[in-house]
Amino acid sequence: MRITQDHIKSIIFGVAVGDALGVPVEFSSRESLVEKPLTDMIGFGTYNLPKGTWSDDSTMTFCLAESLLDDEFDLKKLSNRFINWVDWGYWTPYGELFDIGNTTRKAIDNLRTIDNPENAGGSHEPDNGNGSLMRILPLILNIGKLPIPNTYSIIKSVSSLTHRHERSVNACFYYLTFARYIIHGHSKESAYQLTNATVKNEFKERQIIDKEFYEFKNILEGDLSNLSISKIRGSGYVIHSLEASLWCLLNSNSYKEAVLKAANLGEDTDTTAAITGGISALCFGYNSIPVDWVESLAKKEEIERLSKRLISKYTLKIKLEDIPEIDDINGASNFAHKFSGYRTTFEETSKSVFETKNKLKTKEFEKINIDDLAESLFFYFRALRHGDGQPNIDYINEHIRLLRTKVLNHEE
Question: What is the DSSP string of 227-258?
């Protein structure tokens, strides 16, 4: 699985924008939102805070993302970031905490004194709020290349800092598996079917008891997207949050549509929209997030810096020695598959590649970057593999020449 800068920006900003969208209407009833639906990002609602204010969902997401940048990912360091959030307003919009769930607060109090952070989270059935699901998405950067069964214990350890009941862990496992398939370039519908098959198999292997399997029946049996909205809840219960985020995505054709659906479900609006926002941005791409919503975010520059640091760590940098020689067709194919992949979905990648192809035709080389060229080659070889045509050597060499020129200029 190849991580692109678009994936990373989608994860970080997708969650934060969804969160900020939902904050002003948190705790609103669905009835009130049906009567007066949210249609844009606003401010000064529930907490009387400015437009673009995000809450604990984003704070904890940023803490996890930042912990991935440590020399070695360490649960105690992540725990300390959570404690500093509660005590000192670390990674908050304005320097102080204004929203936290009861289960999360109790767990963070436990983290102050407990030796093993994995034992801090609530382990009883009533402890299955959405506090670990809402912050788990950046973990895909660390586990995305591992075999799926090997990811379960890692997901469990990170969830367990605040929520260690099997149900919460399973919800996080489902969500990250779904995100993994989206990053692989599958459509939301294909990712849903593949995730269901994968999770069912994993539940079987792990002998998940009938009661826990039953909690996931709306997701795993049939087609969740066909449920009526009356069957979907926006509450703080982790299963409701997972169902709602998937339902909103599967029934939408854009990031904006999905997160507005999520917020207008009512109840725990910021968290439902944050969870929906992360996977929707991965599905539709970072550029699908309304620009004015991104620009409105509190501490937007700090979030951008965090995103850039993650991009620096998790994306491959193309060096001159990585680029094949002219006429090396096999080398060009190997290069393309190593350094590029699907931007989001097949359709979005196709659109991007078509734009690059037009710029090549009109010789607008200055408007094409290194990643565009690698992506264009990747898509070309993927298309060639599924057809019977012969490679166009001139077309491939044009990419190689431009790549060499741009990398050389960039390195100088």
Answer: S-GGG---SSBHHHHHHHHHHHHHT-SSHHHH
